[in-house]
Amino acid sequence: MTFKINLFGIVLIAVAMVPQLSISQNPIITDVFTADPAPLVYNDTLYLYTSHDTASVASTNYEMKDWLVFSTTDMKKWTNHGPKLSPKTFSWATGDAYAAQCVERDGKFYFYVSTFHKDSEVSKGGAAIGVAVADSPLGPFKDAIGKALIVNEMTTDNPHGWDDIDPTVFVDDNGQAYMYWGNGSCKWVKLKDNMTEVDGEINYLNPENFIEGPWLYKRNDLYYLVYASKGESREAIDYCTSDSPEGPWEYQGVLSDSAPNSFTIHPGIINYKGKDYFFYHNGVLPTGGSYRRSIAADYMYYNEDGTIKKVVQTDQGVDAIAN
Ligand code: FUB
């Protein structure tokens, strides 16, 4: 009898533990600290371009030397392709490798990055946006224009030097490309078809609670501007919608609460093999925190009118896709 109870107890404990051990997927990258997720689907593979946190546990600031690329075909097994670009690739750049996004157009891959300008006469040492180009999603990437695409002096609405960060680029169905970016205020500009020159004036907007990290995309006929927002005490994610990539934007509220153990959170949204995914970062890995962040992914669901249900951040993450 005693033996039977013990065996039953052991089985119960084992059964209780199995689901947690087998389905806990978040964070999705655990071998390095990653942040600022930017997903791209190309040829049935999901590529994830990320920032790379290398600050020590004691550090109170970022240390971000390069941008990493990961890929998956099932949302479970992630291949780490390593660093594919760094500020050193840009002769004019210095300092940290902040948020970036890679987009494909006509078989070329344009990697828009935020970093810092070394020439104080050009940029007062402020943040700048560069663009690198490659023939493959994994590079090799080279500086597409040999100079920054956006420097600090080009935007005048904010006095601080790091307001030109976090580019997101979207190519509309008619071929018109748009770049949104910014910290403190959101800025946008059209890009020429070559993807490497701005086309016209820079525009400014102040979506409700906007802090940084915009992500621009289209679903059906609705455009979405998702961004890191003020939150309660740490950044959260809010969003707006519009009938045009040029606005006006209608504020739709909070999409996601703050991420555990990280002051920042940063959105990356994509539909892959029929499901909608919300990528973000948190600080939950052992020794993690605001400067040692980790990317996670959860499902995103739309309402019939195109608004988005609030994202539930989970430890379990998303299911593996059966290929
Ligand atoms: O990763 C550095 C900065 O933190 C990014 O540029 C912001 O969006 C925030 O995530």
TrEMBL record:
It comes from the Bacteria. InterPro entries: Glyco_hydro_43 (IPR006710), Glyco_hydro_beta-prop_sf (IPR023296), Glycosyl_Hydrlase_43_Enz (IPR052176). The record marks 166 as: Important for catalytic activity, responsible for pKa modulation of the active site Glu and correct orientation of both the proton donor and substrate. Keywords: Carbohydrate metabolism, Glycosidase, Hydrolase, Polysaccharide degradation, Xylan degradation. It holds the Pfam family Glyco_hydro_43. GO terms for molecular function: hydrolase activity, hydrolyzing O-glycosyl compounds. The active site is at residues 36, 212. GO terms for biological process: xylan catabolic process. Belongs to the glycosyl hydrolase 43 family. This is Beta-xylosidase. It comes from Galbibacter marinus.
